[in-house]
Design a protein that fits this description.
The chain is built from three helices and five strands; from the N terminus they run ββαβααββ. It has about 110 residues and is α+β, with helices and mostly antiparallel strands. The protein has a single domain, classed as Beta-grasp domain (Ubiquitin-like (UB roll), Roll), CATH 3.10.20. The longest helix is centred in the middle third of the chain and has 9 residues. Bound molecules: FE2/S2 (inorganic) cluster. FE2/S2 (inorganic) cluster binds next to loops.
Length: about 110
Amino acid sequence: MAKVTYVTHDGTENAVEVPAGLTLMEGAIQNGVEGIEAVCGGNCYCGTCRIYVAAEWLEKLVPAAEEELAMIEASGEEAPNARLACQIPMTDALDGIRVTTPEFQK
Ligand code: FES
């Protein structure tokens, strides 16, 4: 288990424990965290699991695959720290990570 804090656009914090092996998207859904919709169920084609990751954590994540980068670009996202939570597996190294969710995701 590792701690993840999901922060909504208005600053509301939801700190939950996520087991290694689940994705950051699955950790949010299983804990009822708002701000991650995940319409496609983790298949990298909806873009509604978008998160913004602070620089100190960004470098610890698995690099985004071409498929993820294409989905982010197709959705019109321009923030360089945007990722798709369904493409990020939780690991012990990510214990304490904080991610922010966009206003357009409920
Ligand atoms: Fe659809 Fe991540 S859940 S892209």
